[in-house]
Structures are given as C-alpha cells and as structure tokens.
Amino acid sequence: MTKKFVLAALSLTAVAAPASAQRLPAAVVAVVDLQRVTAECTACKSALAALQAQETSFQNRQQALATPLQTEEQAIQAAIAALPAAQRANPPAALKTRVEKYQQSRAQAAQELQQLQGRLQSTEANVNLQIANKLDTIYPGVMTARGATVLVDKRTTLASSGGIDVTNDVLAQLNSQLPAVSVTPLPQQQQPTQQRPQGR
C-alpha cells in the first residue's frame, strides 16, 4: 500500500509541475538548405576547384613515386629468382644493398605521401571551418529579419513549406560577407586528426 501511495504522489507531482512552470513562446521555425548553400556559394565553388586541383596534384605525385618503386621491386624479384636456390636465402652483398636502398626509397615515398595527404585534409578542414564560422554569424541576423526563433537544416526535416525557407537569404549574406576563403592548411595548433570535412 505504501509503495502505491508514493508512486501516486510522484505521478501527481509530475503532472502538476508543468502547470506552475513558465510557458514557452510559440516557436517560429525557418529552414535552410545547407547542402545548396555550400554547393552554390561563391567562396565554396572557388575553394572546391582549388581543392580538386590539390587532390589531382597529390594523385599525380603518388603515381610518380609508385611507378619507379614498382619497376625496381619487379627487377629485384627477378634477380632473386635468377639466383641458385641455395643463394636465395642469403643473396650476394650487391643485391642486399639494392634491396635495402629500395626499402628506404619506399619508406621515404610513404612518408612524403602521408605528409601531402595530411596537408590536403587540413586544407579541406580549414575551408569548411571558415565557411561554418561565417554561417554562425549570419544565422542570427537572418532569423531576426525573418522573425524566426528556430532555424534548422532542411535535410533534417521530413517536409516543409516553401514560405519558411530562408536559403536564399543565407546564401546572399554568405556571398556578401565571405567572397573568398583561404585554401591553406589549418594553423598548427588546430590540425585535425584524420577528419574529412563535411559536405566535401
């Protein structure tokens, strides 16, 4: 009996509490298509072209390093295969030196590519950070101008009326306030750890 009374009392308290709490004002929701904003803004398109050029440069360098390494690896394998079976476990000194040089070259190539890839990822992150920071300053002004109290990404909604879409407002403000971004890596203290920027 006592347990039932306590549960009943808690239930009554939970129901009665909202009646004494201050009511929230009605929300005025606006939506923005961030995918369209980041695809169409002037700075975004310019930055994307620069990033694609950097990606192409990375791929070209990757191929330039890989081709001679593959050729040398095949030549070493052929040289080892040409040895008498008894010597393959302990090849001549010249061949050992050749193998060591190849391994050093391969390690240096891997290190260079890792650094280039890290630089590219950092540059992508820096571009997205600049755009995101500017959008954060634009949202409040657009909301105030349109009388909105809540702003959500259109992709998170199931459906919405065209009358509450403020994408054009946000896009116009972004083009005006951020005509270009720096397509360079993040400062050292802000370097990302293997992250891919959103929407890229």
From TrEMBL:
It holds the Pfam family OmpH. Keywords: Coiled coil, Signal. InterPro entries: Chaperone_Skp, Skp_dom_sf. The keyword Coiled coil applies. It comes from the Bacteria. Residues 99-133 form a coiled coil. Residues 1-21 form the signal peptide. PANTHER family: CHAPERONE PROTEIN SKP. Belongs to the Skp family. This is Periplasmic chaperone for outer membrane proteins Skp. The lineage of its organism: Bacteria, Pseudomonadati, Pseudomonadota, Alphaproteobacteria, Sphingomonadales.
